[in-house]
Amino acid sequence: MHKDMKSELQAERADTQTEMDEWVHEFNTIRPHQALNGDTPAQHYRKSPRVYTNSLVDYDYGNMQTRKIDKHGDLKWHSMDYFLSEALRGERIGLKSIGKRRYEAWFCEHLLGIIDEEAETFTPQLAKGCRQRIIHARRKQKAYIKEF
């Protein structure tokens, strides 16, 4: 859909939201689709019976300290902002001390990475084969990423 939308809207020189909305309406309700045997996506759409609650069950971190991730994906910890992930906005994480000014950051049973207050960094826990990234904390709202 996105490839079609991009090429067709560029060909038509569409530049307003109204023109884009009209294209999406035609794509979903008028235009037949080969993958749907000539039907439109609207003919196959069904509203889910499940209700989305937008929240997880309040997880018990035991004796870990907990903090809430802000709307930017930052953890505020001892006057510093550590960027963890925008995907965790509004979620609580657990912080487990693992030594002098070093903490594991946990989301439920998932180790997110290590906060090192001395170096003012957050090092994410990555899958094997991924390039290691160290995210430097800032006293302001921004963080930067350094790759190795």
Can you offer a commentary on this structure?
The protein has 148 residues and is an alpha+beta fold. It has two domains: 2-44, no CATH class; 65-147, no CATH class. Helix content is 18%, strand content 30%. The protein has three helices and nine strands. It has helices spanning 2-11, 17-29, 41-44, and strands at 65-68, 74-77, 80-83, 92-99, 102-107, 110-116, 121-124, 133-136, 144-147. The protein has a seven-stranded antiparallel beta sheet, with no helix packed on it. β7 (121-124) and β8 form a beta hairpin. The protein is elongated and about 65 Å long. The mean pLDDT is 82.
What's the total helix number?
3
Helix content: 10-25%
Largest sheet: 7 strands, antiparallel
From the helix content, strand content and strand pairing, which structural class follows?
alpha+beta
Widest sheet: strand ordering: 1-4-5-6-7-8-9
Number of domains: 2
Would you tell me the overall average pLDDT?
A: 82
N to C succession of SSEs: HHHEEEEEEEEE
Give a nutshell description of this structure:
The chain has three helices and nine strands, in the order H-H-H-E-E-E-E-E-E-E-E-E.
